[in-house]
Every structure is written in C-alpha cells, then in structure tokens.
Amino acid sequence: VGLINASPGEVTVRLRFFRGDGVFLGEHSQALKPFEYTQLDRVLEKVMGEAVDNFYIVVSCTPEGARIFAYASVVDNRTGDPILVPLQKVLTQP
Question: Has residue 14 got a pLDDT over 70?
C-alpha cells in the first residue's frame, strides 16, 4: 500500500481491512510528515499474520481536511504480474 500526504501538516492515515464479505479483519495506522510518501509492504500481514484471498481496505485520515493519496500495488502469485489499484473515493449520503 502506498500512501502520500499532500498536506502541509502531519497526518495519520487509518487503514481498516475487511474480508470480501464485509467481515472486519483489523486495522493499521501510519503517521506521515508533511508531503511524505511511504510504501507499506505486505501490510495485511501486519494486521492478520495469515493470507486472505479476497479483501478490501477503507482508508481515512486525520485531521479533518487533510489530503492524502493511496494505492495498492498487487502482485499476482501465479504469474508475478503487478497491477495498480488506485484509491476509489466513496461518497456517503447525509
């Protein structure tokens, strides 16, 4: 998972992991300095310690109004081919 802080202040990014059927698996938080970039390798292992075939991550950050970019870089176990999975913004209804 790649995380980029596009804000002039420090942010904390919260990654919440869910199995494909919506079951909560755990979470991980990462502090980022102003305009900092980091890549977290094998991030699900930090939360679970075991493989999961189908999962998704909900990304949020504090403080309110901070701007981040996030993506996942996934390598196919069978072919070794990488793919990029960009962050998808989900709008919630009030």
Answer: yes
Residue 27, C-beta contacts closer than 8 angstroms, at least 6 positions apart: 14, 15, 16, 17, 47
Predicted TM-score (pTM) of this structure: 0.82
- In whole angstroms, give the CA distance from residue 9 to residue 90: 24
Q: Which of 9-18, 48-57, 64-73, 78-87 has the lowest mean pLDDT?
A: 48-57
Pairs from 65-68 (Cβ < 8 Å, separation ≥ 24): 66/5, 66/7, 66/9, 66/11, 67/5, 67/6, 67/7, 68/3, 68/4, 68/5, 68/6, 68/7, 68/11, 68/13, 68/32
Residue of 9, 26, 17 lying closest to 62 (CA atoms): 9
Is residue 55 predicted with pLDDT exceeding 80? yes
DSSP state of 22: S
